[in-house]
Amino acid sequence: MRPTHDSLPVLNRLLAIEYRSLPMYLMDARPWRHTGDQREVQALCDIITNQKSYVQRLSDLILSRAGALRFGEFPMEYTALHDLALDYLLGQLVQHQFGVVAEVEQLAERLGNDRPARELALELLGSEKAHLETLQELASHASSWMA
Asked: Given its phi and psi angles, is residue 42 left (phi above 0), alpha (psi -120 to 50 degrees) or beta?
């Protein structure tokens, strides 16, 4: 089936989710780190690299359909997270990621019969679920360390 332009708003929402994610925001906000936070920093860098890859793939698909890219804006509540420690932010990242997974899942369903877009969205969903698992593991480790 030939994709329709009805998918463009959904694809752009997926693009905004990835491009304006909390990890992407923290890349520039540079949270405070403890000396032993290398594992957490590396995991965050890996998530950001992965999200940038999906931003590129979603952008390519949107542009191939003569759509305009809509990157959105960072949520204002992110500004309250400046100057906080990375180990504290892991809990915030987990909560954010639960929302991302739920929204990507809903958006993938909305893509219906648009097979290329739906397949990309489902791949993205799997990736975001893996990010959630990683963040939960790191947050669990950080909370046991702090206890």
From this structure: alpha
Q: Which amino acid is at 125?
A: L
Q: Which of 146, 144, 6 is nearest to 62 (CA)?
A: 6
Radius of gyration of the chain (CA): 16
The yes-or-no verdict on residue 42 having pLDDT over 80 is yes
pLDDT tens by residue, 103-128 = 999 999 999 999 999 999 999 999 99
Is residue 93 within 8 Å of 142, Cβ to Cβ?
no
Instruction: Using the structure block, give the residue that is written with the tokens 């915030």.
Output: 92
> Is this model's pTM higher than 0.85 or not?
yes
